[in-house]
Amino acid sequence: MFRGRMKLDIIFSVLGRLILLLGAMMFMPLGVALYYGESPYPFSLSIIFTISAGVLLSLRYLPSDDEWELREGFVIVAFGWLFIVLFGSLPFLYEGVSSLNAFFESMSGFTTTGATVLVDIESHSKSLLFWRSMTQWFGGMGIIMLFIAILPKLGIAGRQMFRAEAPGPRKISSSPV
Known about the structure:
This protein is an all-alpha fold. The protein has eight helices and no strands. The chain has one domain. The longest helix is centred in the C-terminal third of the chain and has 28 residues.
């Protein structure tokens, strides 16, 4: 099924750009923190760390004209989720949430689960609550982007996926679709 070498330059380049995008999104809650007179440090530090990691990956592994194969897509999606959740948990960490709870909040947001482990939610800064809401919104948008941007690049048609996932009775035919 998988032949040849995995194209690491494609994988790291895409992951770097994904991390850069996440760092750019952190400017919005930073603006909220400045507007409400809250400490800008949780988001300033998160932005610096996230954008630095994204730049390092993006510059080290420049995008190539090679085509993605299925295995690169799988690796990008798997590590993309992991990196987004890890870097997305930084604002929670810098605001004093424990590492496990920060990871849980970030994972819950980006997967649009909506669960929380924060006991007294209103005690947190407005900017962190805004970030928590943004992770849920971007998580929902991420699923849409998966269908629009990534899957066609892998040669997977949306209609075929819809047929595979749609419930209900199906007509079984002997002719190929």
